[in-house]
Amino acid sequence: MSAVGATVRSELIGLGGIVERNIYLTKRYFLWDLAFMVWTIANTLTIVFIARAVKLPAAQENRLATSLLVGAVIWAFLGIIFEFVTETVAWERWEGTIEYTFMAPLSRSMHLFGMGAFAVLYGLIRATILFFVVAAFIGIHMPNANFGAALALIGIASFSFIGIGMMTSVLPLISPEKGAQLGFVMQGMMLVVSGVYYPVSVMPHWMQAIAKISPATYALRGDRASIVKGAGIAWADVWPLLIIAVVAIPLGLATFKRGERYAKKHGKLKRSG
Amino acid sequence: MSSFAVPPSVGTSVRSGVPAVEVTDLRKEFRRRDKRAGRFARRRMPALQGVSFTMERGECVAILGQNGSGKSTLVRLLSTLLINDGGEAKIFGHDAFRETRAVQRLVNRVSVEASFFKKMSAAENLSYAARFYGMGPAETRVKIPEILERVGFPVDRRGESMENLSRGMQQKVALARALLTSPVLLLLDEPTTGLDPRSKLEVQDFIKAVRVEHDATILLCTHDMLEAESLADRVGLLDRGKLLFLEPVDDVKRRYGVETLEEAFFAATGREYEAEADEDDEIREVFG
Predict the structure, then answer these.
(1) Which of B67, B73, B31, B66 is nearest to B48 (CA)?
(2) In this model, does residue A82 exceed pLDDT 60?
(3) Which of A19, A125, A267, B257 could make an S-S bridge to B285, C-beta 3.0–4.6 Å?
(4) Residue B81 is nearest to which of A28, A99, A106, comparing CB atoms?
(5) Is the CB of B105 less than 8 angstroms away from the CB of A269?
(6) Is the pLDDT of residue A59 over 90?
(7) Boundaries of every domain in chain A
(8) How far apart are CA B241 and CA B47, in angstroms?
(9) Domain B21-115+184-287 falls in which CATH fold?
């Protein structure tokens, strides 16, 4: 095997190792996951029940409930991706393995993509369960829903989400105590401007301007159109997501590498506790 | 192939005709809060000050020093976890701060804390570590039981989660993790600290065996003088970031006209070895 081939093979094995490790951990922490799932379902129900409270005609109420459900599910999905990618460092620091992982000959891009790949897989499973459990509980009807298009758009949006997650994952590296929390702040800000439970048009103009660079805006808009109206994938939602991904992934990697260098310079790349 | 054989990918990174480790005027400092100078004031704390030494391939060198002497900082610099503030370090001719990927393929370490995913089993933790070095599932399925047996870990317990294993068992898994990737430079940072006497002896015997069977160069950082004397070809003393000497034990004793390394420490520093309670350099790094 050529040197390049051997390196590619080695990197892919490393990426697979990250996914494999997260599968092990998910199995070990299954009850935690179950508890978190119940909490997410309860939280989503509190949002979707708002559609009942506003006393609309049945068709409009169903439409509003579906729209809120899509917002809540995308929020949950995004939250999982951010949690996994942002806590790449925080988890390893907590478990004490951070030094072994960062001294291993695996490129940081494969390391972060491994985390991202598992997060997308795991997030999709959870989001699907969440969606159908809440829809069944509330009794939402989706006769026209184009689930394939909705799923495909989430898949495309995942690349941008991972890229932005990479940028925030540097925060726990720079600030072991406050970094993870700052990542959650970033996630919240992104969803606020993206119209998670309301149209972007109701926000002030400056927030609408920021919404244009948020991938969640296009994921929410496209998925609502697919689930509520049965629309296919719209190129108007796809191309911004692709551009954001093309910018966010290299920027995320560069930010992380810079943060790693800072951490190595200041002795922050180490376990705590 | 034996579990300890150097894989071809590693072999190509090992340059011949160069020392295994070549450290020249290596310097590192950390900043820490200085409350006396103001709320946000920081002061510089030197961790390593102009450290120079070389190690030949296959050699075992022990670096002695108390907490805060700079031992862990030295190990972390050589394992690419820190960036230096001056000087240089080369591992088999590769710059430890510029050619990090090449260095990472050659080095592995065992530290005082075993550091594993506690809910995962020994086998799962080893698989995870091995993937980073390009070892696929087919390879680890064979090698993990082999290496665990070699370090004296009961192979039938490899499926138990790490949190259920004793400290000594965990440290054996840590040794297995380091050796699984066939490093040509093994960095041991107080590998026996906190172990019961039996586990300590087992680990020390294993380190001796690795030297004989595996073509590894070993840098052992410890505060245990007897351990250093029994395992190492040469012994160095790191004190407050300065390497005071690095030579065979007999030469050290002869130089200071003393019978023991403890007396040599006193002669070199003017302080008792056990008496000092210096600040741990790890604490300095976290909160610095």
Answers:
(1) B73
(2) yes
(3) A267
(4) A99
(5) no
(6) yes
(7) 3-266
(8) 5
(9) Rossmann fold (3.40.50)
Q: How far is B80 from chain A, CA to nearest CA, in Å?
A: 6
For residues A35-60, one letter each, b for 16 or more C-beta atoms within 10 angstroms of the residue's C-beta and e for the rest, the string is eeeeebbeebeebbeebeeeeeeeee
User: Chain A: residue nearest B85 by CA?
Assistant: A265
Q: Does A103 touch chain B (CB under 8 A)?
A: yes
Do A28 and B282 count as a contact with CB atoms less than 8 A apart?
A: no
- A270–B104 C-beta distance less than 8 A: no
Residues of B with CB under 8 A from a CB of A: 9, 30-31, 73, 76, 79-83, 101, 104-105, 107-109, 111, 113, 115-120, 124, 127-136, 161, 177, 282, 284-286, 288
Give the residue carrying structure tokens 């559609």. A51
Pull the structure tokens for residue A249: 């992934």
**pLDDT reported for residue A120:** 94
Task: Give SS3 for B275.
Answer: coil
For residue B274, give both structure tokens: 């056990």
**pLDDT single digits (tens) A13-31:** 999 999 999 999 999 999 9
Out of A10, A14, A95, name the one closest to residue B117 (CB): A95
Helices A147-169 and A179-193 pack at an angle, to 10 degrees, of 140
Residues 6 or more apart from B93 whose CB is under 8 A from it?
A: B15, B18, B22
